[in-house]
Amino acid sequence: ELKVEQNPLFLSMQEGKNYTIYCNYSTTSDRLYWYRQDPGKSLESLFVLLSNGAVKQEGRLMASLDTKARLSTLHITAAVHDLSATYFCAVDPGNQFYFGTGTSLTVIP
Amino acid sequence: DTGVSQDPRHKITKRGQNVTFRCDPISEHNRLYWYRQTLGQGPEFLTYFQNEAQLEKSRLLSDRFSAERPKGSFSTLEIQRTEQGDSAMYLCASSLVLAAYETQYFGPGTRLLVL
Fold first, then answer.
1. What pLDDT score does A99 carry?
2. Which percentage of chain A shows pLDDT scores above 90?
3. What DSSP element (H or E) covers A24?
4. Size of interface A-B (CB pairs under 8 A)
5. CB-CB: which of A90, A96, A100 is closest to B48?
6. Which of B42, B104, B105 lies nearest to residue A101, judging by beta carbons?
7. Which is nearest to A24 in space by CA: A6, A45, A42?
8. Is A36 left (phi over 0), alpha (psi -120 to 50) or beta?
9. Quick check: A4 and A23 in contact, CB under 8 A?
10. Is B42 touching A (CB cutoff 8 A)?
């Protein structure tokens, strides 16, 4: 059974600090996606990573992909309150999307 | 482009009743996905269509669930004889498949509560 695991599940961090969210998956996939979900809202696409070593950055978020290790990271730099949300990674091995359980991020002043 | 829309946004039903949800994708998108999401979990794949053809269906999907996309545009998801365990958020997403990847655009979801 394909598994997508995120770590940590819950993260509380102070404004201005840095942190990394990890996404491990159990199948071969060259495509990995990161999404954001605000409470009560739907999912918003953040990044698409298409190959080993891919790195994408948008504002204070940077995502990377290591297909050999089956690992993606989402790095948060100098967190601000607006980044508080749940972050999901998802892999697409070819027939459907598999989502992780999510990381609930709370940024506190 | 108004994005992906879903109707209704909320549904409360009694156990044993049938419910039907509708999804209108972004107009030029050829793929349409249905997911179920419960509290504290990521979206769980149910099924997807490429145009009007249903190409994949989760093995976990009960035969009480059926989906259609008759003209390759909007889609419906029907749940027959609802059970309390069906209570969840049902998400629809659409995408335009490019050569190397696709980006799914999600609708606001239909929240189902089965009493």
1. 95
2. 79
3. strand A19-25
4. 52
5. A96
6. B42
7. A6
8. beta
9. yes
10. yes
